[in-house]
Specification:
The protein is of the alpha+beta class.
């Protein structure tokens, strides 16, 4: 057999090897809202620095219990494990696409036995039955030459999708660390407010007893008693609501760390100090935010994958070249398998082209281009949403600091008033009711300050989430 018929398709394949259809991905279109490196956030002030935020930002709250809870959540949370499983799936899909560009080789061994009845054509004799054995060993191989780069584009798309899955895992870690920290802050806030509310209830009970005594002596009315009793019942109802919220946050922390509700009760029900944010917070700049946030990275990688899929769709419009080869040995006896010099071989190149498809492939290309345009718009939306999240979080934190400072001054005034009232009560110039009322006002001021401090820490957590901090590298390849 002359080599020309086989070498011609191979020559065509080599000449077309560098041809790849579709647009080459050059990154998303830059947005005017995405500021140049070094530009500051619009809502930042002197309390924020341009340094990059800490990856393990929760450690800046200096709470060992919180550090341990975040560690447990990152290791055992079901949502994080779902994201890890999806990353493994995407990486396996990438390996599959890489393998699809290689030849496919199969081996086969065949044994067949046939019993054929005799045939008497003239009726003059009896033709006996025939038994026939067949033995065969062989290999077959097939390989589709990637003439126009369709398979290369599929590998490119699968690689980008695997990278997007890794970014989604990082995004799940960012959200998870923020959720754990926020639930922990809410728990400590409720515990502190419960303690202060119970002190207030004790004081109200004393005031109700005094009011009843004064009513019995005729120096107070039933209206005074009813008013204080109403305040007492309202305070008890408030504590019941806070107790329910405390249980809810205990259950939330348990499930976030991959445990059943109630598992952390013995460990966390004892009140602890409310963690407070550091004096200075590193936030970087908007350009660094766009590079850091995993959801933006996932949107960008999805755009890259959808761009590569256009090339795969365009390559399907052109001819396809496949090479097939078969080689085998065998015969009617088992010993025929040892005759290595007596084999059959077939080499068959095949060129196919669906040139008359009535616009099907063109429609697929248009569909892929529409998907790419959608992904680009989603990327731009993700960037704008991220910038807004960051600016809003910075504004809330900045204004909350002002509120905390104001409430701290109010609490200091209430504390001073309670101290003066105690002095006046010891001097006999005010009644016990007046003293208890002043001390209750002091407790109310402490409750408002505690809630404001918890809100400040919550705003700090929101900043870290908006900046995309709190993720670690995904699974190793």
């Amino acid at each position: 057999m002359r080599p020309f018929p086989v070498l011609l398709p191979l020559s065509i394949a080599l000449l077309a090897a560098g041809c790849t259809m579709g647009p080459d991905y050059a990154g998303p279109q830059p947005l005017a809202a995405a500021k140049a490196p070094g530009a500051a956030f619009a809502r930042a002030d002197t309390g924020f620095s341009a340094e990059a935020p800490l990856a393990r930002w929760w450690e800046s709250l200096h709470d060992a219990v919180l550090d341990d809870l975040v560690r447990q959540a990152l290791a055992a949370n079901p949502d994080a494990r779902v994201a890890e499983a999806r990353l493994r799936q995407a990486r396996s899909a990438l390996r599959l696409e890489r393998a699809n560009g290689s030849p496919n080789v199969n081996a086969q061994a065949v044994y067949a036995h046939a019993h054929l009845p005799g045939v008497d054509f003239g009726g003059e004799g009896d033709s006996g039955d025939t038994d026939l054995n067949l033995y065969n060993l062989g290999f077959d191989a097939s390989w589709e030459i990637d003439l126009f780069g369709g398979q290369r584009r599929k590998v490119e798309a699968a690689r980008a999708e695997a990278e997007a899955a890794g970014a989604r895992l990082a995004d799940a870690q960012v959200s998870l660390s923020a959720e754990v920290a926020q639930a922990y802050v809410n728990l400590r806030d409720r515990q502190e407010r419960i303690a202060l509310s119970r002190q207030s209830i004790t004081m109200l009970e004393q005031m109700v007893d005094l009011a009843r005594q004064r009513r019995d002596r005729g120096t107070a009315s039933q209206l005074d008693v009813d008013r204080l009793e109403g305040q007492l019942e309202q305070a008890k109802a408030d504590v019941a609501g806070l107790d329910a919220e405390q249980d809810a946050y205990l259950d939330e922390l348990a499930t976030l760390t991959g445990a059943a509700p109630g598992t952390l009760d013995a460990r966390l029900r004892t009140p602890g100090a409310l963690p407070l944010p550091p004096a200075a917070i590193a936030i970087g700049d908007p350009a660094a935010l766009i590079r850091r946030r995993p959801d933006i990275r996932a949107a960008e990688r999805t755009l890259a994958a959808d761009t590569a899929k256009i090339g795969a769709a365009e390559a399907a419009r052109f001819p396809r070249l496949s090479l097939m080869g078969i080689i085998g040995i065998g015969g009617t006896s088992f010993s025929d398998l040892t005759h290595l010099d007596d084999f059959a071989a077939i080499a068959a190149p095949q060129l196919s082209w669906s040139f008359l498809d009535f616009g099907r492939n063109k429609a697929r290309v248009g569909q892929a281009e529409g998907v790419r345009d959608e992904a680009e718009a989603q990327y731009q939306g993700a960037v704008l949403a991220a910038l807004r999240d960051a600016e809003d979080a910075l504004s809330r934190f900045r204004n909350r600091r002002i509120a905390v400072a104001t409430l701290a001054r109010a609490e200091a005034l209430a504390t001073r008033t309670a101290g003066l009232s105690r002095d006046r009560y010891r001097a006999g110039t005010i009644t016990l009711t007046d003293l208890l009322d002043a001390e209750r006002q002091q407790l109310a001021a402490r409750q408002r300050l505690s809630a404001a401090k918890a809100g400040l820490t919550g705003d700090f957590i929101a900043i870290q989430k908006a900046l995309g901090a709190g993720w670690r590298n995904g699974l190793d390849e």
